[in-house]
Amino acid sequence: MGLWGQDIFYSTHQSFLSYRAIYLIVLDGSRTLDDPCQFDQYLPGKSGQKTARDYLRFWINTIVTYCKGSQYGFPKIMIVFTHKDKLKHSEVETAREQLYGDVKSMFQGTPLTSHLVIEDRIFVNAKNKNDPEMAKIKTSIIRESKLQPTWGQNLPKCFIPLELEFENLIRKDMNVITFDDLRKINTQHPIRPLTDAELKVFLKFQHAIGKILYFDEPGLDTHITLLPTYLIDAFKSIITDKRFCKGEKQKEHLWNLMSQKGVIFKYAIEKLWRNGKYQRFEQHKDYLVAVMTHLDILVEPKDMTASAIEYQPTFTSWLAWYRLRIPLDTFNLHPSPTETLP
To answer: Where in this chain does the record put each COR domain (predicted)?
Structure first.
């Protein structure tokens, strides 16, 4: 399960989904679109048991909704089915026809059809790297990349030295730098140093294509995340599905506290990031927490007292995830006498 597939991070999608990308939705082809999902998660607007059809519709709508600013029919969304190895050889083609036929009929007659890449009808055994259909995925991505509206787009040559320097810093395990660091790097520019305004144009472009993360907001514009997975790993170290906390007592304790009270103390984050594999986040702890607050993963209460909580997961991402098991008092919210909670 990818990070952004976890329901607690749904509210961050608008910051990470880009119309410049090609999206790949992977589904279990050994099951029909209407079989109940084995691992049920919260899904906006859907109660009860969920199916692959529900999640497919949700993800396609999410991608198209948050990837505005492109031409009609973009971004492209590839649908790939896996677990071919679970079927008998004689069943594969029948299943392939049924699965892709169902996907096509789901969106037929809607604008969403123009975004789908399903004509290749890829059905793979992901355990077998020599499965010829694995190569078809790469071929399809290359083909669709060349059809992107941004393919062949002219870019300023003055960006190239900075891009190369960023790659060099990543190789040295420097995942986050400050804007002042960038200014120093910029002074060594072989053509001419860029102005601060031009540097921000460069950073916003790099952010748009997913190479870095840069938020041009007060309090966040002082730092640049060179490796997006660094920020993602920091998120996962604190907030994730319970199944990913097993074997880590400190994370399990945090998870239990958040599930029961919907709160997390700042000192608990600092303690977690001082130890072991999470120590790499400690240096940039203030920036990382600020980003999580900016993305509405955490909320810092305005009324702080000696016994007040430091950070409180948001109503939208946490209350929904726990299906209202978090005490409503935590959020100063109370259902009306006639309101029925699920």
So the answer is: 156-300
